[in-house]
Amino acid sequence: MEILYDIPILGLVFQFLGYLVEVLPRIAPGILAGATPIALGAMCGILCERSGVVNIGIEGMMLTGAFVGYATASVVAGMVPDTAGTLVFGLTLPLVAAVVTAVAASVALAALHAWLSISVRADQIISGTIINIAALGLTSYLNRLVGSGLGGGGRFSEFEPPAALVELPVVGWIFEAFLAQGPLAMSVIIIVIVMQVLLFRSRWGLRTRAVGEHPKAADTVGINVIRLRYRNVVLGGVLAGLAGAYLTLEATGTFQNGMTAGRGFIALAAVIFGRWTPIGALLAALLFAGSERLGVSIGLRPPDGQLGDLLAGIPNQFYAALPYVITIVILAGVVGRSIPPAAVGRPYEKESTA
Predict the structure, then answer these.
(1) 140 and which of 131, 257, 311, 322 could share a cystine (Cβ 3.0–4.6 Å)?
(2) Which phi and psi (to 5°) does residue 51 adopt?
(3) Which residue has the higher pLDDT, 330 or 157?
(4) Does domain 22-152+160-334 have CATH number 3.40.50?
(5) Rounded CA gap, 352 and 219, in Å?
(6) Which letter does DSSP use for residue 210 in this model?
């Protein structure tokens, strides 16, 4: 292997691949953790766009869910004397209440977006933009207003997989990556698989895809286009709320202004890169999160040799921006090749039977 490293220029590529093989088992749990909010947001986007509704308000829904969940956990923790988790994942009443309210807040915004987009037939891009701007401003204001009085309500703990499973040769690190997680991160795999099966192997999935491709044809065979779009947009709000709850109740245990940091928009990029399929979007989310974790790993422990000298000369700000750079590059290469649902973004008005 050392011989390959000595090849001019190409040797740097081999060094980088060798470095990836070395660090991947160590950063794999962090990759799935980082991909969780992006993947959940992407599932929200798939539900909406497969139904024919553009939802760029995912960022605002996630941020609202994050703040409401954190605030609820803090308030309930102050009301309950003992908040020590006695069950798996450190489950407590404040955390359960926080997840429920985070989802409810996001669903409320999703219902607003559905009403504006489907019933009012307003511009769907503007509707999502309004939600993003309002969520950013309102959560920042409320956090400044009451944030100092919120002490937090704890956070979910990670599951500890059996040592015998983690120590298996070759595949042990894969089990650790998927099992050494909290409940919200672990649920992503289940949600993605269920959505993939339902979307392409169920009557609901067939109807959803029909409404997103040709709503008039779907209407003529008895599918209620308006009701199905409402239902799917609201269900998407549930997933966006879980993404926001993950940020404050599992990843950090606290709230910061604008803490979604563009993850809602990266989720939309994952939808496009994944060609509007749940599994494809999950792989895209893992790619974005992996680039972020790799940048952190390079900053803390760069590779040896010429590659390490080269990477050490790159400013740390570049590694922080790497996921967003990859998003732009992927969108530039994929947009135009990925074909969205034909009726996405087009309001539907049921024809009069008179």
Answers:
(1) 257
(2) -90, -5
(3) 157
(4) no
(5) 12
(6) H
